[in-house]
Amino acid sequence: MPRSVQLKPELKKSIKTLLPRNGFPSQQALAEHLGISRDVVSRFLNSKPVDRLNAEEICGAIGCDIREVTYIEETQPKEIKIG
Question: Which of 37, 40, 34, 44 is nearest to 12 (CA)?
Answer without folding.
Answer: 44
